[in-house]
Amino acid sequence: MSSRSKRKSISLALSVVVASSMFAACSNESAKSSSETGSATTKATPTASAGQYPIATQETLTSWEQINPNLTTVFPNIGDSPFGKQLESDTGVKVKYTHPADGQSKEQFNLLIASNNLPDVIEYNWGGGGTAAYPGGPEKAIADKVILPLNDLIDKSAPNLKKLLQNDKELDKMIKTDNGTYYAFPMIRPDNGLVFRGPMLRKDWLDELNLPVPTTIDEWYTVLKAFKEKKGASAALTAQYSNELNIQDAFIGAYQTANRFYIDNQGKVKYGPIDPQFKDALTLLHKWYAEGLLDKDFALNTDSKSQDTRLLSDESGATVGLLSAVGKWMDTGKKKNPKFQLVPAPYPTLKKGERAFIGQRDFKYNPAVSKAVAGDSKHAELAVKWMDYAFGEKGSMLFNFGIVGESYTLDNGVPKFTDKITKDPKLSLQQMISQYTKPNGPFLGDSRKSFNTYKEQDDAVGIWEQTDAVKHVMPPFLTPTTEESKELAKLSTAITSYKEEMFVKFVMGKEPIDKFDDYVKRINDMGIDKVTQIYQKALDRYNKR
């Protein structure tokens, strides 16, 4: 079967890809030899040696990738932005970019893969079988000739990435399959960029009510009641809902469980939503909902605008949100009320002084925005050389800070954003930065990069990272085998849908909590044990890499 026919044949399968919320919200084989992995035939060999820029080439690459929403307010295409133009100048490579519409990435990705016309490079989630957008994960995508194995290409044409992988064995372990095949260029987070979401509250309200920042579930209850009764907050606690309540297991984690797959203290994979203690977490959330403390419309808050509205209209005084949002909300809030202040809070526990069981913590490899080379690309070598620029010193500076002298300057060797970026009278900091850098994508993140504009943001990471998430969060880049992935696709979507349907009903009281045992039995009958076993095998193989 041709690669085009195979892509058509998987178009239906794409609709049952394992939901990322199951696995992500949720081992010593060497790389294959060149004869095993193969590589693509390049239409034209660029004249520059690997690692040397600009490359002398007349070829134009095509790249399909998501565009930062902050950039679209200024430029509709990355290629038109100062960043895109500088990248072309530095690398010598012209690139024609195509961007899916905001909120339609998954649907348009599916259509792209099922088409007869793939671009040279595709930036999307090429991670493990549990989170990958492609059914069956990267091994299946390579087998279907949708993307290329990159072992030979990295070895010959990507000296910057190759050096990083040689020097960082843990990273090297993350970005390949169990059989040692590299499948994408990775987004690499710096060590100080792994924690960026957590609980936060209106500090000015706390001060007015003479209440401390809450650390336990009981203290949170006291604060939320005060926000409702004394500040008139109709949704004292709100949060964005993206396939599930996006609170990164805040409150739920206090009960030593998670609203996803997690790793227990013995290193075993568990599915949190059927834990006995998950019933206690649901009971808490239902109590808060029934008393009007949890946003009654939480399941409708499917985009960030709802969260913005609640917090900035004084309807809400607490949420779980991104570090970057703290700055955005404080900028806007202070224009209306100079006293407006948000403060980070620890992930709550049941007892004072306990360490939180789990919270938000990513890994240095973020598979959600990794770049793969299409299986039928005629410019594979050029594509790899172009992508490798982001992992060298000059490329990393461009991707992280933009254009020296324009978007940043060096102060005793330390890059700092210029007033042009930080003090634009019309555009926000994020809108300005998105024009000159690439906020997300395959490049080497720099620990010196910071978008913080308030002390509260600087404090937040140190507070939010005080959890045992490093022990309990499931890696999103495990690679189940093709057969395992088929089993996951068959079972997981239905389980995830049912779990979330019941989660909402339990919290809202549409199903009594004493039906929890029936719900657990139903999930068991749907095959959750098989799914858990697959993830356990994949985790064991990963640990042995």
UniProtKB/TrEMBL annotation:
Keyword Heme: no
Low complexity: bias regions: 37-51
Keywords: Cell membrane, Lipoprotein, Membrane, Palmitate, Signal
This protein's record includes keyword Lipoprotein: yes
Cleavable signal peptide: 1-24
UniProt xrefs under InterPro entries: Bact_solute-bd_prot1, SBP
A Pfam cross-reference name: SBP_bac_1
Region (Disordered): 30-54
PANTHER family reported for this sequence: ARABINOSE-BINDING PROTEIN-RELATED, POLYGALACTURONAN_RHAMNOGALACTURONAN-BINDING PROTEIN YTCQ
Name of this protein: ABC transporter substrate-binding protein
Organism for this UniProt entry: Paenibacillus oryzisoli
